[in-house]
Amino acid sequence: MDKTTPHDIMKLEIAEELGLLDKVTATGWKSLTAKESGRIGGILARRKKAKP
Questions:
Q1: Tens digit of each residue's pLDDT (9 = 90 or more) over 1-47
Q2: Is residue 20 exposed (0-12), middle (13-18) or buried (19+ Cβ within 10 Å)?
Q3: Got the DSSP string for 1-25?
């Protein structure tokens, strides 16, 4: 039962934009460095804040 939330979709879109989607799909989110995770989190927070 894999429920994909809008949050998850946005996270995947950002990972793709940063060129990290292949890494995430191959080895999972835990394979990202702290810097990579932080960039995704920062962009995600900014986009969520900008949404009305």
A1: 578 899 999 999 999 999 999 999 999 999 999 999 999 999 999 99
A2: buried
A3: -----HHHHHHHHHHHHTT-HHHHH
The secondary structure of residue 8, as a DSSP letter, is H
The pTM of this model reads: 0.86
Residue 12 token pair: 């995947």
Tokens 């979709």 sit at which residue? 9
Would you state the structure tokens that stand for residue 4, as one six-digit string?
Answer: 């994909």
Residues 5, 20, 17, 10, Cα dihedral to 10°: 10
